[in-house]
Amino acid sequence: MRMLDIKLFRDLRRLWAQALAIALVIAGAVATLVMSVGSYRSLDETRRAYYERYQFADVFALVRRAPMSLVSQIAEIPGVAAVDARIAKLALLDIPGFREPATGRFVSLPEHGTPHLNQLYVRAGRLPEPGSVAEVAISESFANAHGFVPGARFSAILNGRKRELTVVGITLSPEFVYAIGPGDIMPDDRRFGIVWMPEKALAGAFDLDGAFSSVAVKLLRNASEREVILRLDALLDRYGGQAAYGRKDQTSHAFLDHELDMLNNMSRTLPPIFLVVAAFLVNLTLDRLVALDREQVGLFKALGYGNLAIASHYLKFVLALVVIGIAIGSLAGTWLGSLITSLFGDYFRFPFLIFSKSPDVYLMAAVASLTAGTLGAARALRGVVALAPAVAMQPPAPPQFRHLLPLGVRVDRLLSQPAIMMLRGIAHHPFRAGFTVLGMALATAILIVSLFTRDTMEQLIDVTYFMADRQDATVSFTEKRPRDVLFQVARLPGVITAEPYREVPVRIRHRNVERRIMISGRPPDADLSRIIDEKLRPVVLPESGLAISAMLAQILGVQVGDDVEVDLLDGQRRTVTLPIAALVEDYFGIRGMMNADALSRLMREAPVINSVHLALDESRLDSLYDTVKELPSVSGLALQRVSLANFRASLAVLVTTMASIYTGLAAIIAFGVVYNTARISLSERARELASLRVLGFTRAEVLRILFLELALLTLVAQLPGWVMGYGLAWVMRTNLAGELMRVRLVVENSTYVLASAVVVAAAVVSALVVRRRVHQLDLVAVLKTRD
Amino acid sequence: MPQADTRAGGRMDTGVFTARDLTKVYRTGEVEVRALRGLTFEITAGEVVVLLGPSGSGKSTLLNIMGGLDQATSGRLFFKDLDLTTLDDRGLTAYRRRHVGFVFQFYNLVPSLTAYENVALVTEISENPMRPDEALALVGLEARMDHFPAQLSGGEQQRVAIARAIAKRPEVLLCDEPTGALDSKTGIRVIEALLGVNAQLGTTTLIITHNAGIQEVADRVFFFADGRISQEIRNEMRRAAAELTW
């Protein structure tokens, strides 16, 4: 067996370029799997550990003003493990050197010790001294956005009174991994931050001595969240409590969950596609590669080697390639995985990162690749080993070709002999040609599925920012205000148009499916923030009835005309039945919309508003900012322009980074496929082509014959590649669609073109590499040797 | 040492090939193989020359150099006025294309093309070819021209190869073991075809063979040994192929 092993080693060296190309296809798929599963698991593990170590609460509720004495009653609710009552209020901030009004979510710290729940990780400095009135700790993202270090100062309008505050600590909290300000759909670290302040100081400012306005509850292991929420709501109701909610509806957790879900779905969708494609290609390539060694197999047999010895020799060759591929893929995947983990870890601002070791992932990737390689080799070996040695050593009998057209029709009048050679070759090996086309089509398809996220992001931006929410800014109030306040807002400097909005938290239900959403009441003639239906047309809200996100309709299983049950979680807290009047195309969150007057009637209240959308005169922004900063009732001013920039800078970057990595891996696979196709095609036809050279064909003419076939197969592969790419993109989009964010399936023409261009470029590069081989064809050998 | 034609320094007007002190040395690693050791000869138009000799004696090396498939290490080789020893790959390709027809031991037909199309493969790139069916008629295969190689016997395949080689009306036909893979009866038909072409077109024909019987159809026979022409015989009477036995 030793000699065979030496042959194996030399064969690998001789065929290094091809071996590497096959190994890279495997590596691409393995890297995809290891990277995506590894990074998802690391981030998920990190989040779990973060939540656990820092006691992230399970249930949350806001209340207008509840006495501290209520805490013990909450603690007695069956299933409650711990309760943390605190003061939580929004307030406008005035930051030196920062023109726009920013918003702070002020959260109280207990006078003694640290909070039981949602504990803080102190990144720098310390927590405020108990009893201090000006010391605060701030969230790290906010601090970084403004370059705040301990000792920095800014002021806040707390309950109408401006206070100078000093930063003493920079902290992280599991409760605010994602911190999103009022009216925003994306985090804006410059304009929104969390500010922790000693309880006494905050109670004094908001007149909440001996009272709390927010409560967080940790549940016992087997407690029923729903039961606890019901009881908590009952306790808080008479103190102006808003409906309590679980982690699922807690903004930070929900966003984080969604992001991780997206990563998880990517890791469940793309790697299997890549693995299947790679397995298929490796199978195809090895089959043809082993078949080329037919004569040597005959020789080994003639020398007395058994079928098993011969089979295991070729199997070893295949396994060597696969193992190299797995090794490269595992290393690259591990590296890319830790890169992505760090990227997301930074984005989420986890205080620490746990890099999950996942031996099962490597094992899974190895088993899948080995199986693919072995099956590919087995298919070829079965044919070769079955031959008698004398037959195997002979060149294969000239294959039987067929006339493409009935006899008598001279195709040579229409086509050159090289073209006929190519066409008959394809007709003679329809499966081989078919598989080659399929391989290249799959290469195009995985490129499309990696690239299309870019298109969907642009479409999402287009619909969200330029068709639906076209306002320049949104002013939010700390509490609901009479609708008359609209006229004051309209008189603010620089305001061109003002549209009022009223938001009511509700639970919406159909049969046994229930979600907690906001219903916004909007003026019937709203022009700034419009409702876009599924056909991307603006819709006018009907007098009555509810418009809901198409995604919500899907979750609830309702269509236009169906009735849903709605628990109003504000005011009189009635339960009403509303008809679904329209479905809305939106991509962030799930929500409901109603005519503002209809909503007022439903709430049985005089018209009130929570926020106002504005169209602004950009030249007067500064004076608007200055005026808003002095308004005690305003909790925030969200700027659409900034929101879009943030979206592009944060989420879009993450998504496109992931997409770029996948695209790179897909490109490697595509190149591997095309290169191997060209290279093997050359090996199979080396003798024929050398004969043509002897007959007087120039190098260019011989190359044309070889490349004509490659070019034809590459071109033919593109259309099915596009169709499969669209199909895979559909699968991916469906898997990624969530309640917090989803996309519409959009694949731009430029994406098809780009994917095809990469495959065509791979074909061109392969052709250039193969060209060198054609120059080295041994013309003399062909006279004497057979195959 | 006997030489084919010892008139050094000049070329006859009727000379198709003129070789002077032609050598070929192969170097593989540290081993040096002297395949040709200073050949000088002349071959005139229309001659049939058979090259005989043991394996490794230099016949094929010479044929390859004469066919423009390989380069000599030193010495000169003229095809008419063309100095083959000075041509680059492009020049050699053009030389093969215009002047040389090859016939190989293993036919080297393109399996995906019919007999007719295999011939047309060459006529398409030639300047003044005969029609493919004409060439096939010359080797007696006009009835089989729509058959693929797989549908033809070995002898028929070799005759297609000959038709392909002569279709461009080459001045020289170089045949390396044309009967090597055939039984005697079929081999004789192939030799008949070659001689027929030589008679009708006047193509200078060189045939390498291990089969000593074939020497009787040649005008001249070169015996090769150790990179040299060890003996040269001129047949005053060429025998017809049909009279051959082996």
UniProtKB/TrEMBL annotation, chain A:
ABC3 transporter permease C-terminal domain span: 273-379, 662-774
Bilayer topology: Multi-pass membrane protein
Coiled coil (UniProt feature): none
Entry keyword set: Cell membrane, Membrane, Transmembrane, Transmembrane helix
Short name of one Pfam family: FtsX
Keyword set includes Zinc-finger: no
UniProt KW Membrane keyword: yes
Transmembrane segments: 269-286, 317-341, 431-452, 651-675, 705-732, 752-770
Subcellular locations according to the entry: Cell membrane
Name of the protein in question: Putative ABC transport system permease protein
Taxonomic placement: Bacteria, Pseudomonadati, Pseudomonadota, Alphaproteobacteria, Hyphomicrobiales
TrEMBL record, chain B:
GO cellular component: membrane protein complex
Domain of life: Bacteria
Molecular function, one GO term: transmembrane transporter activity
DNA repair is among the record's keywords: no
Pfam families according to UniProt: ABC_tran
Keywords attached to this entry: ATP-binding, Cell inner membrane, Cell membrane, Membrane, Nucleotide-binding, Translocase, Transport
CDD domains: ABC_MJ0796_LolCDE_FtsE (cd03255)
InterPro entries to which the protein is assigned, alphabetical: AAA+_ATPase, ABC_transporter-like_ATP-bd, ABC_transporter-like_CS, MacB-like_ATP-bd, P-loop_NTPase
Residue span, ABC transporter domain: 17-244
Family per record: Belongs to the ABC transporter superfamily. Macrolide exporter (TC 3.A.1.122) family.
Name recorded for this polypeptide: Putative ABC transport system ATP-binding protein
